[in-house]
Amino acid sequence: xxxxLGHEWDEWNGRPLPRGGDFxxxxxxxxxxxxxxxxxxxxxxxxxxxxxxPRLGTLWSPxxxxxxxxxxxxxxxxxxxxxxxxxxxxxxxxxxxERLMERGPYLQLMNYxxxxxxxxxxxxxxxxxxIDVYNTLAERRxxxxxxxxxxxxxxRCLSKQALDGVLEIAGRYEVPVFVATRGQLAxxxxxxxxxxxxxxxxxxxxxxxxxxxxAGKLPVLGLxxxxxxxxxxxxxxxxxxxxxxxxxxxxxxxxxxxxxRNPTA
Length: 265
What we know:
The chain is α/β, with parallel strands linked by helices. The chain has helices spanning 27-59, 63-91, 105-119, 123-139, 160-173, 183-193, 204-214, 239-249, 258-261, and strands at residues 150-155, 177-180, 197-202, 220-224. Strands 2-1-3-4 form a four-stranded parallel beta sheet, with helices on both faces. The termini are far apart.
């Protein structure tokens, strides 16, 4: 199903967003909610098993015990995985390959944690923290691509200052920029251009959906926005961070001077 970017804010009541639309949060918030998500999921399954276990036992007497052992083993593996994630983030070194971390199960953990955070009214802060953890893990891979192999995806709701800054950075490093208005258009341009890496800009809510759709297929770095005038209008971004990512991803590293870009100037 196609998504209109910004549809996650359809229920917005028009009031000013908290902290001027800046949902920055410490990474520890994500890890706390991720641990709570694992506990909650395990508890729900345990309750279900407790209720239906006797009936399952009439089908095959060892079945309830086998299911309890499986549940405990899975809970232990999830706890170990979260520990490896935290160790990777805070230890400064990724302890698992990307397919087992930021481009693998972590994407699902982010989404399940987001679902739980909505019940506590902390969705945007938890999502921001989760995206920061994701970006840190992804950036450490030290990936390099050619100028034509990097794609910058931006929404239409950037302020003029932010848009001009993005275009200036893209021109300086000679990388293409695409303004995405719908999820389907973003996926299509990725399919057509076949980039080897993407730098995407979006609010926390759209970024979570985009990472879930794309990050498992190709490397993505996600830059979240500040929303001082509410969602989907005049958003601002950290242009310094964007340039750092673009420069780090593009092979050869540095920007071209104006004379290099236009020898006749």
